[in-house]
Amino acid sequence: MTTHATGAAGSLVRICAVADLAPERGAAAMLPDGTQIAVFLLDDGSVRAVQQLDPYSSSNILSRGLVGTHRIAGEGEEPERIVPTLSSPMYKQSWDLDTGEVLDSGGGERLPIAVFDVALQDGDVHVATAPRAAAGGKA
């Protein structure tokens, strides 16, 4: 089993087969409670899941966003790192796919997105039914 996260928030549900996803392209899915999520297969074979709702346009469109990377400078002893990103197809804000943190708010309010833990099991994508707690303790 390959897991992207240290611990899943909520129980895990099967979303699809990994083979159903196209690299660097998003797919929309729905959790059992009706929450819409966007699922992305990255070039390195890992999978990320975030909320489908774009907080800037209030539209369920993030699965149509652009996947990329962003270089984050290290501070103090912390080394520089490269993180996977998602840019909104509507107004082009960008988020860190690992944390949901806003990397570019386009000059507006900094609105993070919810990130869901993902596990790959027997060729299938399983996603947590609740988002991971955000930095600062919010889910």
Automatic annotation (TrEMBL):
Rieske-like [2Fe-2S] domain residues: 13-127
EC id: 1.7.1.15
The keyword Oxidoreductase is assigned to this record: yes
Listed GO MF terms: 2 iron, 2 sulfur cluster binding; nitrite reductase (NADH) activity
Domain of life: Bacteria
GO biological process: nitrate assimilation
Signal peptide (UniProt feature, chain positions): none
Keyword annotations of the record: Nitrate assimilation, Oxidoreductase
Broad EC category: oxidoreductase
Annotated Pfam families: Rieske_2
Name this protein carries in UniProt: Nitrite reductase (NADH) small subunit
Gene source species: Brachybacterium aquaticum
Source species taxonomy: Bacteria, Bacillati, Actinomycetota, Actinomycetes, Micrococcales
